[in-house]
Amino acid sequence: MKLEHVTADYQLGPIRSFNVLQDVEMKVESGSFTAVIGKTGAGKSSLLKIMNGLLLPKQGKVTIGDAIITPGKNKKALKSIRKRVGMVFQFPESQLFAETVEQDICFGPLNFGASKEEAKELARKVIKQVGLTADILSKSPFTLSGGQKRRIAIAGILAMEPDILVLDEPGAGLDPKGKLDILSSIASWHKEQGLTTLIVTHDMEDVAQFANNIVIMDKGTVVLHDAVRNVFSNKAIIDKWQLDVPEALKFQMKIEEKTGVKLPKVCLTIEELTESLIEAGLA
Ligand SMILES: Nc1ncnc2c1ncn2[C@@H]1O[C@H](COP(=O)(O)OP(=O)(O)O)[C@@H](O)[C@H]1O
Ligand SMILES: [Mg+2]
């Protein structure tokens, strides 16, 4: 997936927000896991929307596989990218609408031409992928817990069998366990199915634990796109963008300060830190 010189506005009736994306350049490798970070209003959600064709470029070009979106007519390309790029909105459970979980999940596949049988088969498959059991399919979504509803909303997107999954703050509003469960599931789809994944998050623990790459957005522009470890190895970058540092790295910095020993690499998780401390003879 490639974005070249992409600029976009919102026009909602008389209200217009100019250049919510400004000259965005970005290449996302197939099979990568990217965390998009940045302040509120930086354009993170807009970046995901332009990847899914919900927002269209005023200038520039979005290329996803063989589909190209430009400021002109895009009907065929849009149909292709909406199937290819699965978008999970922030608080996606607010968009559940059907009488049963099964109907909700089957909606997307049916819309893209699957038969009833195929759609039901997909529903049975994805309900397991999100860690639920098939008996929930006949229930009303409205009787379920918040975490279950979120999983079902995500299952509905997985049922369209996307190549790229983009999720806008998938852990927002869940308790710590619910959040970790969702993020771990996302990481396992990425690993096991090679699903190209982008998430918007504010949590640097998520970034450190699950993502390979970081995109920092500021004022509608991608200001940095690099490997997670490179970003957290760079003090100037951390300071410039006022990044929160993962817990493990905070510990590492304190240990290095107190002992005067420099560990050979930047540790992003407690596991990495433990190993490095043992190797250095400090534990
Ligand atoms: N539907 C909309 N209509 C008009 N302006 C919008 C809309 N959604 C977002 N914006 C504006 O676009 C800018 C970027 O928003 P957004 O992409 O949601 O940022 P983020 O997700 O980083 O918080 C903000 O200035 C916001 O006010
Ligand atoms: Mg947002």
Automatic annotation (TrEMBL):
SUPFAM superfamilies cross-referenced by the UniProt entry: P-loop containing nucleoside triphosphate hydrolases
UniProt subcellular location: Cell membrane
SMART domains per the UniProt record, alphabetical: AAA (SM00382)
InterPro entries in the record: AAA+_ATPase, ABC_transporter-like_ATP-bd, ABC_transporter-like_CS, ABC_transpr_CbiO/EcfA_su, ECF_ABC_transporter_ATP-bd, EcfA2, P-loop_NTPase
Domain called ABC transporter: residue spans: 1-244
A Gene Ontology term for the protein's cellular component: ATP-binding cassette (ABC) transporter complex
Membrane topology: Peripheral membrane protein
Domain of life, source organism: Bacteria
RNA-binding among keywords: no
Subunit structure: Forms a stable energy-coupling factor (ECF) transporter complex composed of 2 membrane-embedded substrate-binding proteins (S component), 2 ATP-binding proteins (A component) and 2 transmembrane proteins (T component).
Primary role: ATP-binding (A) component of a common energy-coupling factor (ECF) ABC-transporter complex.
Matching PANTHER family: ENERGY-COUPLING FACTOR TRANSPORTER ATP-BINDING PROTEIN ECFA2 (PTHR43553:SF27), HEAVY METAL TRANSPORTER (PTHR43553)
Assigned protein family: Belongs to the ABC transporter superfamily. Energy-coupling factor EcfA family.
Name by which UniProt lists this protein: Energy-coupling factor transporter ATP-binding protein EcfA2
Species assigned in the record: Evansella cellulosilytica (strain ATCC 21833 / DSM 2522 / FERM P-1141 / JCM 9156 / N-4) (Bacillus cellulosilyticus)
